[in-house]
């Protein structure tokens, strides 16, 4: 994967399976932005001694907390969590700075215009998606089990155009 990342223009790539990954990750900064797409959440920002300006996670507890505690209680609990994550990140930063690192949540909303833009980029060869495996639709359970194991090296895709053949005996 490191070779693929650098071939696509990454300035550097780290191998997550290497024994010194954590050390290299912390030493390779400073990072302007760390985007958490793996679901570790904002609390991860303060667990390492890395240098960054912003840690953006797509795993916000806001919806889960408002479902559990109601709009007001959940909103307050989520705000407290965000503040705690930001303070933890600032406290564990390797060196004090004028603008301490902070944690943010990002939310995704689908947009037809954005999907069209991605389509155009893909047609021009400017966007590619790494696919680990394509499952025919009838193997949905196997696809779900593979996703639950984690560590996929690409997308797992269900193919709803595949035709299931039924053999007659």
TrEMBL record:
What's the superkingdom here? Eukaryota
> Listed GO cellular component terms?
mitochondrion
| InterPro entries reported in the protein's UniProt record | YIM1/Zinc_Alcohol_DH_Fams
PANTHER family under this entry?
ALCOHOL DEHYDROGENASE RELATED (PTHR11695), RETICULON-4-INTERACTING PROTEIN 1, MITOCHONDRIAL (PTHR11695:SF294)
Identification of the protein by name: (African queen) hypothetical protein
**To which species is this protein native?**
Danaus chrysippus
Where is the organism placed in the taxonomic lineage, from the top?
Eukaryota, Metazoa, Ecdysozoa, Arthropoda, Hexapoda
């Amino acid at each position: 994967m490191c070779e693929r990342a650098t071939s696509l223009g990454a300035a550097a790539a780290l191998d997550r399976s290497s024994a010194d990954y954590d050390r290299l990750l912390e030493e390779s900064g400073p990072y302007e932005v760390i985007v958490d797409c793996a679901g570790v959440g904002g609390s991860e920002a303060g667990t390492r001694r890395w240098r960054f300006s912003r840690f953006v996670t797509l795993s916000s507890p806001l919806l889960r907390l408002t479902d559990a505690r109601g709009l007001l209680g959940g909103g307050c609990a989520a705000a407290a969590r965000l503040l705690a994550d930001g303070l933890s990140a600032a406290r564990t930063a390797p060196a004090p700075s004028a603008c301490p690192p902070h944690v943010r949540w990002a939310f995704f909303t689908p947009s037809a215009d954005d999907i069209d833009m991605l389509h155009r980029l893909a047609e021009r060869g400017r966007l590619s998606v790494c696919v680990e495996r394509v499952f025919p639709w009838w193997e949905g359970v196997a696809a779900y089990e593979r996703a639950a194991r984690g560590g996929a090296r690409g997308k797992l895709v269900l193919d709803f155009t595949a035709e299931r053949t039924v053999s007659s005996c």
